[in-house]
């Protein structure tokens, strides 16, 4: 699986393993700019495609606006689902549409946060889509 | 100097967490690491007759197959660790060590561990192991079970007896003008942190002996160190447990030790470091659970709503090899002024996985039963639910007679009512609608014991002006790195960026398992004391230095201010910490502290309180219940960081929502196998379930708990929420639902 290849072979452990069944969203990455579940993607299926993980989001020391907004709004606690949340959120806001809280709730419901920082995740995404 | 403590600062580990750089237990890059996969029992009761591992051992890449046939012999677990009773009825954990015999006590019990050079090869080889069982019919229900007991105490705590009678509740109930007896039931639920359990175990030779390093998902690194050393027959110093980040715990990852023991045994057998990451489905068998409960609440009251008697009897269950007892009367024993109070806990042993604490153990489901019963009594008496609670307001602890350390619950009720618009609702059930949906309002009281435990810390000042404070506590999303850095910076009179706080390593000064909402009250004072001690050491250095402006001054005439030691009487006379160290040609000065709660624990009863008010919408056509709005006000002492505290409280509220509306693990009634064992079937709240939440706190420091005035906040949000929602469903529909979770089928069944 792409998730295991990232974590075990490339030692890119920012992408998280939560369920191996595509049910929690912790393993979300971008494949050719679109949000994708790396636990349901075979590594060989991604041959020749551009994969971005959480490690590739910041530009050096400068965080992506979604990362900044997550810190500012405390949109996480334990931090384990956070890379997946942020990858899903960055894919969501890249079209620069202004989504309502209701639309964000629906779009982000595939990413589970057991610490339930959800109210803060909505606030963070609303701020990031204004950035 | 600006105080850091109490400020809503961003998490100091935020950058690590949003960039994927925070390192969790399965992510350590250990050279020559091998991977493990587990073979689990498919039956719930019986024994292993034969274990055929030939095909697995011959599979490519396989290094070892660990089973009862070749597992190292383990010593029994200690009877007690750090004051917590481990074994026996009412004890915290499993009495049986893994892979020491052929017995099978639950489906999903680990029977073998296959180690291979890659994860894929380990998984494949595990699928080749063939197990033959001598099967027996499992006992799986509370009603039919043959083994029952009445445990004396909860985990050996003399202050937490599980069978108690104050006054004569039986006679008082019989004589009460108004009587109410109701049965409330709750389902088995699972913590399901998004990070599954994981351990990396590495054996080395150090100083002529064996040394074991464990990277484990543990919120009790000291405890685990002791358990591993005892079990493996090693000196404690020969085991180190490391865990700088935990991906959520909620009661798991603390008290069940088979996973790290299996990994350590597998690594010894394979002769290589081994990683064992448990799969999501395993989280329903080896990670602990909240047991199901069957609770009978009996209330006796006068016609004007004064409680005369309260009896709370619980039936619950543990596994065959654990005596853990969900302490359901934790709220009933203290919340209301009632002269005749009784409670009991009957424990059944079932062929199911072992239970353990889950956020608000006892309080979440026991408090739910009590606060639902109070709502029923209020309806019976035609009293406002808040008014009934005020008429029974406890000015002292009804069980012990001790005064509260600090209690401002009345203010919580008042503010909560205003926030939700309580007095604007139509109090009649089934009287409010929005469109096609019934609308209801409900409330409940919440509480949480304010524990404080002994702890140690060390503070170090370096000659380059930086400082380090350390204690073997844990970061599990609670904001430990952040708040203890805030507290330490203030303790050292240094800016936040010059201070680091380290945790999550058994080699650091001792700290207890992070649980029971006790971490802030426990570690905060230890960090502060260590800071004071290191400043005292520095003062003594300066006093002795002939060139120091503080030379010859009295120790108590000197204070720390803005990174300098100065004379209290003349702040212009002094110098910065680094100058003193440089003059002494010292790279650093360090001091430790060991602190514990004192006499105040005998004098006062320590609790946090709160009031939860909710609005629900119920669709009677589909049976679906949605939490629309929640307003809760908490009396939790002084907050160390309102930003992280707010997150922790709303997280607790959401877990309470999950327990109320959706969370339920089901085991097959004949085989005992988990039927629900993934995150599509086990529903946890998602973003779409998130209501409009307003939480507030009074911010009144507790004058007795510690100099910080802070009580814990990890669990109180989870307590109270279930009853508030259930009572709101009654207000919306006129139906009393008495079985958690409140799934649509129960509402439609009527």
What does this structure look like?
- The complex is a heterodimer of chains A (131) and B (750).
- Chain A has one domain: DNA polymerase, domain 1, CATH 1.10.150.
- Chain A is built from 5 helices and 3 strands, in the order H-E-E-E-H-H-H-H.
- Chain A has helices spanning 2-9, 65-72, 82-93, 101-107, 118-130, and strands at 28-31, 34-37, 51-52.
- In chain A, a hairpin with a 2-residue loop joins strand 1 (28-31) and strand 2.
- Chain A is globular and about 35 Å long.
- Chain A starts with a helix and ends with a helix.
- Among the domains of chain B are: 164-189 and 289-451 and 602-749, Aldehyde oxidase/xanthine dehydrogenase, molybdopterin binding domain (Aldehyde Oxidoreductase, domain 4); 453-601, Aldehyde Oxidoreductase, domain 4, CATH 3.30.365.10.
- In chain B, the strands form 7 sheets. Chain B has a 7-stranded mixed sheet with strand order 3-7-1-15-12-13-14. In chain B, strands 9, 10, 11, 16, 17, 18 and 31 form a 7-stranded mixed sheet that branches. Chain B has a 5-stranded mixed sheet with strand order 19-20-28-29-30, sandwiched between helices.
- Chain B: It comes from Hymenobacter gummosus.
- Chain B: InterPro entries: Ald_Oxase/Xan_DH_a/b, Ald_Oxase/Xan_DH_a/b_sf, Ald_Oxase/xanthine_DH-like, AldOxase/xan_DH_MoCoBD1, AldOxase/xan_DH_MoCoBD2, AldOxase/xan_DH_Mopterin-bd_sf.
Quick recap:
Chain B: Residues 19-137 form the Aldehyde oxidase/xanthine dehydrogenase a/b hammerhead domain. The complex is a heterodimer of chains A (131) and B (750). In chain A, 37% of the residues lie in helices and 8% in strands.
Write the layout of secondary structure elements.
The complex is a heterodimer of chains A (131) and B (750).
Chain A (H helix, E strand, L loop, with lengths): L1 H8 L18 E4 L2 E4 L13 E2 L12 H8 L9 H12 L7 H7 L10 H13 L1
Antiparallel strand pairs in A: 1-2, 1-3
Chain B lengths: L13 H5 L15 E7 L5 E7 L1 H5 L3 E6 L12 E2 L2 E2 L17 E2 L5 E7 L2 H8 L3 E6 L12 E2 L14 E3 L2 H7 L2 E9 L11 E9 L2 E8 L4 H12 L6 E4 L15 H13 L3 E4 L15 E9 L5 E12 L21 E10 L13 H18 L4 H7 L17 H12 L12 E2 L2 E13 L5 E8 L4 E4 L9 H13 L6 E4 L16 H26 L13 E4 L2 E4 L6 E3 H7 L4 E8 L4 H4 L3 E13 L4 E12 L6 H20 L30 E6 L23 H13 L5 E2 L3 H6 L1
Parallel strand pairs in B: 1-15, 11-31, 13-14, 17-18, 22-23, 29-30
Antiparallel strand pairs in B: 1-7, 2-6, 2-8, 3-7, 4-5, 9-18, 10-18, 11-16, 12-13, 12-15, 16-17, 19-20, 20-28, 21-22, 21-27, 24-25, 25-26, 28-29
């Amino acid at each position: 699986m792409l998730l295991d290849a990232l974590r075990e072979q490339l030692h890119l452990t920012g992408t998280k393993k939560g369920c191996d069944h595509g049910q929690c969203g912790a393993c979300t990455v971008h494949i050719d700019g679109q949000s994708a579940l790396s636990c349901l993607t075979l590594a060989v299926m991604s041959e020749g495609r551009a994969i971005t993980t959480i490690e590739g989001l910041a530009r050096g020391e400068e965080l992506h606006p979604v990362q900044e907004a997550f810190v500012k709004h405390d949109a996480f606690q334990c931090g384990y689902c956070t890379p997946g949340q942020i990858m899903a959120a960055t894919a969501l806001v890249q079209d620069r549409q202004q989504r309502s809280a209701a639309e964000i709730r629906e779009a982000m419901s595939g990413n589970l946060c057991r610490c339930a920082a959800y109210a803060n995740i909505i606030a963070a995404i609303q701020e990031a889509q204004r950035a | 100097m600006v105080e850091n403590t109490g400020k809503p600062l961003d998490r100091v580990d935020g950058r690590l967490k949003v960039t994927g750089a925070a390192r969790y237990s399965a992510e350590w890059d250990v050279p020559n690491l091998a991977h493990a996969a587990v073979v689990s029992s498919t039956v719930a009761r019986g024994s292993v007759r034969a274990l055929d591992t030939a095909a697995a051992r011959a599979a490519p890449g396989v290094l070892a197959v660990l089973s009862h046939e070749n597992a190292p012999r383990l010593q029994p677990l200690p009877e007690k660790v750090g004051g917590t009773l481990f074994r026996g009825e009412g004890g915290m954990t499993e009495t049986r060590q893994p892979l020491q015999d052929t017995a099978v006590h639950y489906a999903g019990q680990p029977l073998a561990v296959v180690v291979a050079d890659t994860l894929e090869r380990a998984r494949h080889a595990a699928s080749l192991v063939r197990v033959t069982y001598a099967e027996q019919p499992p006992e799986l229900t509370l009603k039919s079970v043959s083994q029952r007991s009445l445990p004396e105490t909860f985990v050996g705590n003399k202050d937490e007896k599980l069978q108690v009678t104050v006054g004569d509740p039986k006679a008082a109930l019989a004589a009460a003008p108004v009587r109410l007896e109701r049965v409330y039931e709750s389902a088995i639920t699972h913590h399901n942190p998004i990070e599954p359990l994981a351990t990396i175990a590495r054996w080395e030779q150090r100083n002529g002996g064996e040394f074991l390093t464990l990277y484990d998902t543990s919120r009790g690194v000291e405890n685990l160190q002791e358990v591993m050393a005892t079990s493996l027959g090693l000196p404690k110093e020969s085991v180190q447990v490391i865990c700088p980040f935990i991906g959520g715990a909620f009661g798991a990852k603390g008290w069940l030790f088979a996973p790290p023991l299996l990994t350590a045994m597998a690594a010894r057998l394979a002769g290589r470091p081994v990683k064992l990451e448990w799969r999501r489905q395993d989280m329903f068998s080896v990670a602990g659970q909240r047991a199901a409960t069957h609770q009978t609440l009996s209330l006796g009251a006068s016609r004007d709503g004064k409680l005369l008697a309260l009896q709370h009897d619980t039936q619950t269950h543990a596994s065959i090899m654990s005596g853990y007892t969900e302490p359901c009367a934790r709220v009933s024993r203290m919340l209301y002024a009632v002269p005749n109070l009784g409670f009991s806990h009957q424990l059944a042993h079932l062929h199911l996985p072992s239970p353990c604490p889950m956020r608000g153990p006892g309080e979440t489901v026991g408090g739910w039963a009590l606060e639902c019963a109070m709502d029923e009594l209020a309806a019976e008496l035609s009293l406002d639910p808040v008014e009934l609670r005020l008429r029974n307001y406890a000015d002292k602890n009804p069980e012990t007679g001790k005064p509260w350390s600090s209690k401002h619950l009345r203010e919580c009720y008042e503010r909560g009512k205003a926030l939700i618009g309580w007095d604007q609702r139509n109090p009649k059930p089934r009287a409010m609608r929005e469109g096609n949906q019934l609308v209801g309002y409900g409330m409940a009281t919440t509480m949480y014991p304010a524990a404080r435990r002994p702890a140690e810390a060390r503070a170090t000042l370096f000659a380059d002006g930086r400082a380090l404070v350390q204690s073997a506590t844990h970061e599990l999303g609670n904001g430990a790195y952040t708040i203890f850095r805030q507290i330490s910076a203030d303790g050292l009179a240094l800016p936040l960026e010059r201070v680091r706080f380290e945790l999550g390593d058994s080699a650091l000064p001792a700290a207890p398992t992070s649980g029971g909402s006790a971490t802030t009250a426990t570690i905060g004072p230890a960090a502060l004391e260590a800071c004071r001690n290191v400043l005292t050491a520095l003062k003594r250095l300066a006093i002795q230095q002939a060139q120091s402006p503080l030379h010859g001054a009295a120790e108590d005439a000197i204070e720390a201010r803005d990174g300098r030691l100065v004379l209290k009487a003349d702040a212009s006379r002094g110098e910065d910490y680094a100058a003193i160290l440089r003059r002494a040609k010292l790279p650093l000065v360090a001091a430790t502290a060991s602190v514990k709660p004192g006499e105040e624990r005998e004098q006062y009863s320590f609790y946090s309180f709160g009031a939860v008010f909710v609005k629900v919408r119920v669709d009677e056509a589909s049976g679906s219940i949605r939490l629309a709005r929640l307003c809760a006000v908490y009396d939790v002492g002084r907050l160390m960081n309102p930003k992280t505290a707010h997150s922790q409280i709303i997280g607790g509220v959401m877990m309470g929502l999950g327990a109320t509306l959706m969370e339920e693990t089901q085991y097959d009634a004949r085989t005992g196998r988990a039927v629900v064992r993934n995150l599509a079937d086990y529903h946890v709240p998602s973003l779409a379930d998130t209501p409009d939440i307003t939480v507030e706190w009074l911010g009144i420091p507790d004058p007795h708990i510690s100099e910080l005035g802070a009580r814990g906040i990890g669990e109180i949000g989870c307590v109270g929420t279930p009853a508030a929602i259930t009572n709101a469903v009654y207000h919306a529909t006129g139906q009393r639902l008495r079985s958690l979770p409140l799934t649509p089928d129960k509402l439609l069944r009527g």
